[in-house]
Design goal:
Layout lengths: L1 H46 L7 H25 L5 H10 L4 H18 L3 H6 L1 H26 L10 H11 L5 H10 L3 H26 L8 H36 L6 H21 L4 H14 L7 H28 L9 H28 L11 H9 L5 H7 L9 H21 L1 H8 L6 H16 L2 H14 L28 H5 L10 H19 L15
């Protein structure tokens, strides 16, 4: 009995030692790959030696190569009958995508930063396009992909999926992740209107897609009819989205009120620490009560950018923005690196299923982008709204890349009928093709469609033209009258001296883009150093004085003293 107990203790100790050794090797290898990815991305971008590979594409490629090398070495060792427990554990760890880590640790900072930088002027000028594409479009894409996969199941490919499984796959694959496209947009200076339409759609689209996925996944064993199932899913998704958004926005407001009431300006590290930690709380609270943490943290980013950041000292606020950007950037690279190393998992999807899945994604994207685009083109153009041009519609369709969010959701696909690994393989193939092929062709498509390019100065000029119209928005009026006076205070420097706050634009801030009517009237010119540009800049200089006379601060949102 004693010998058995000693053997058990020895075995436990050896296993623990192996696990600790494997963990050290895993993290060392992963950090090395992450550093290599950052350096390679910087070199490729600065020297422009490979325009077809973006930062995401490079990171994904390095992950695929590293995962393949580890897999090859482990298989060679197995063939030589020298199987090492530690090596096998390392290979398994490296070639397995951690969905729990993705959804609980990596996605929240990325989504929070997306909400934080969802800038107001161009967002509100294109609110109709963004909302239609993100809500109506995502639902239509889910139904279209699910319907096509279910109809082709057993006919064009050997795998079979029931209706709810098909709809669940349609929901997860409808979550777009155009990080490659947006990175190229920033590099070449694409029209900020188009940039914010695609960016705004992707931010809200991910949240809607995740909610729809969770809704359909929970109905796989249900006995509802098709019509009842769809209406039940829509109602549940809408209610979950609304409650999660309300919780996230309210959490940001509560944090802002806390910073206003508690004077923490004497210690910048305290301010920064509380701010960063509380930005993660809405996600955890929402998940605990059965809501969508992604939606909550998105709207927490919106409200904390508008209110909380203005209650920090300037030093803490600048550091907070830097920390958020850094965390989001690293998390994004880790996701694509992990996605690449996971590409060598066992493939369970047939080639015909992958081809049909890819075609379904492209067709479903077209089935909602073009009808929405045509409908929006028929509506009268009223400032600050601008016409949805055909080249922009084509680019929106092309920018529907899939990424790590879709694959992370596929790892949580219900395995009631043994289809999880087939869906994972299908999703992985679609992600790789969209990032490398469609992402790499983004620059060529921009040139082919002759998409307008805008410089930094012209972007600022366009922002200013939107300011008068955004001020009249009902959300801004309510914010100016109630929320900002209640939740914000005059910012202080780190030594507790009141100072003018640095201008930080948020979703609730104003500034617009010149319309085609403005250009045709000669008010705005796309040519640098033009006389029209000088006239517009003179208007910009007088904007603060006019805003002050109208009871609006120079930030362009609220007019109460000390409210911004």
């Amino acid at each position: 009995m004693s010998a058995t107990a000693n053997l058990t203790n020895l075995t436990t100790a050896l296993v623990g030692e192996v696990e600790e050794h494997v963990a050290s090797e895993f993290y060392a290898l992963y950090l090395g790959l992450l550093v290599i990815s950052m350096i390679a991305s910087y070199v490729l971008e600065s020297r422009q030696c490979c325009p077809y590979l973006s930062e995401a594409g490079v990171t994904l490629l390095i992950g695929v190569v590293a995962g393949g090398v580890v897999l090859f070495i482990s298989e060679e060792e197995a063939l030589r009958s020298r199987v090492n427990i530690a090596q096998e554990a390392l290979r398994s760890k490296l070639n397995t995508f951690g969905s729990d880590i993705l959804l609980n640790l990596l996605l929240p900072p990325i989504v929070f930063e997306s909400g934080y930088h969802l800038r107001g002027p161009f967002f509100w000028a294109n609110i109709d396009k963004i909302m239609c594409l993100a809500f109506v479009g995502t639902l239509a894409s889910t139904l279209a992909i699910g319907g096509m996969i279910h109809a082709m199941s057993g006919l064009f490919f050997r795998e079979t999926f029931n209706l709810v499984e098909s709809m669940t796959f349609g929901a997860l694959i409808s979550a777009t992740d155009p990080v490659t496209t947006l990175a190229i947009f920033e590099q070449v200076g694409v029209d900020p209107h188009l940039f914010n339409v695609i960016f705004g759609e992707s931010v809200l689209n991910d949240a809607v897609g995740i909610v729809l996925f969770n809704t359909f996944a929970g109905l796989i064993e249900s006995e509802f009819g098709f019509a009842t199932l769809i209406w039940h899913a829509i109602f549940k998704a809408l209610s979950m989205f609304a409650l999660s958004a309300l919780l996230g926005f309210a959490a940001g407001c509560i944090v802002a009120a806390g910073f206003k009431l508690v004077n923490a300006h004497v210690d910048m590290k305290l301010e920064l620490g509380i701010y960063v930690l509380t930005s993660y709380l809405p996600y955890l609270i929402s998940e605990c009560v059965g809501l969508s943490g992604i939606v909550a943290v998105l709207f927490a980013g919106l409200s904390m950018k508008r209110y909380t950041i203005k209650n920090l000292s300037d030093e803490a606020a600048s550091h907070a923005e830097a920390v958020q950007s850094m965390l989001a950037h690293i998390a994004d690279m880790v996701i694509f690196l992990d996605l690449g190393t996971s590409a060598w998992t066992t493939w369970n999807a047939s080639a015909s299923l992958i081809i049909c899945g890819l075609i379904a994604c492209l067709v479903a994207r077209a089935l909602h982008v073009y009808p929405i685009g045509i409908l929006l083109r028929l509506l009268p153009v009223k400032y600050p709204r601008r016409k949805f041009e055909w080249p922009e519609i084509h680019m929106v369709w092309f920018a529907g890349l899939r990424g790590a969010i879709a694959y992370g959701l596929s790892t949580q696909f219900p395995d009631n009928n043994g289809n999880r690994h087939k869906i994972m393989s299908l999703t992985m193939a679609i992600v790789l093709i969209s990032v490398w092929v469609m992402g790499g062709a983004t620059t060529s498509v921009l040139n082919f469609l002759n998409i307008r390019r805008v410089g930094e100065q012209e972007t600022k000029q366009l922002e200013l033209t939107l300011q008068p119209s955004v001020k009249r928005n009902i959300f801004f009026m309510f914010d100016r009258a109630y929320l900002s006076p209640w939740l914000t205070a005059k910012p202080l420097s780190s030594n507790n001296i009141a100072v003018p706050h640095k201008q930080r634009r948020s979703l609730f801030e104003t500034a617009p883009v010149a319309t085609q009517a403005d250009e045709s009237a000669g008010l705005v010119s796309s040519e640098p150093n033009s006389s029209a540009r000088e006239v517009h800049l003179e208007m910009a200089r007088s904007a603060p004085r006019e805003a002050a006379g109208a009871g609006v601060d120079t930030d362009g949102v609220t007019g109460s003293p000390g409210s911004a």
